[in-house]
Amino acid sequence: MDVVSDAISAVRLGRPSSDRVRVGGTWCVRLDPYEGAGFHVVLAGGCWLLADGGEPVPLATGDAVLLPHGAGHVLADSPVDAAAAARALPLERYREARGSHAPQPGRAAVEMLCGKYRLDRSRVHPLLAELPGVVRLPGGAHAELHSAIGLLSGELDARRPGSSIALPSLLDLLLVYMVRASVAGAAPGSWSAALGDPVTAAALQAMHADPAAPWSAERLAAEAGVSRPTLVRRFTPLVGRPPMAYLTWWRLTLAATRLRDTPDSLASIAARVGYGSPYALSHAFAREFGTTPGRYRAALGSTPV
Which of 3, 128, 145, 137 is nearest to 70 (CA)? Predict the structure, then answer.
């Protein structure tokens, strides 16, 4: 696994959802904050997005926008200020009110693909945490993203046999492409720089490929082809913690994910994430999360350890 894939897998919950929305005329709708990530893709026409506490963002045909932290926001046919946003109807109520008067397919002034992903916010990877509240991805700038949007739109229209499998898979693919494009376009000094630095990236790749391996700073440095001091000097400011501290955090994040998603025993989880015994994992887990693995799992309603 690579860092971006792991960062997404560790927080993703359940199945994503999406809907095709057609609106026209003068309109202004609100979407409330969400415990996950939201997205919109403008398939036809144009509109404006105003996130809570943010600035208006214009969206044109082909543009995609990712709200990685689930910010509440308003979509409208024209720029809106805070006062106008406060009067916006919830999207569901707006659609109910329009009823049969909603624009018909092919005649909509604005057509959008709107969706959201359920995410576990308790252990968000810093790669995702540092993304801004709104990420606009201009149409035509990302070929892979454009292709994924086209495939997804086709499945939504046709409801072909197998769409119950194809749709969530395509939505997952869309999320990967949006995060990938977001990271690639992030400001210098962020995690994009960490993934772009060959030494840091090599160490991260080694840890994520085999987190249970008996890593040491020296072994990681050897994987990156540099000395231990050089690895620490380049890795720490980009990632925000030294290599071995990051490894500990990542192992415990993986343990928490397995406690949430599987009925595996604590001994099995300890072996998979690089701890020699359930006791060693329990001690480290309690230090990181402030609770024992058993209580953590019980609080989620999963199978006890």
Answer: 128
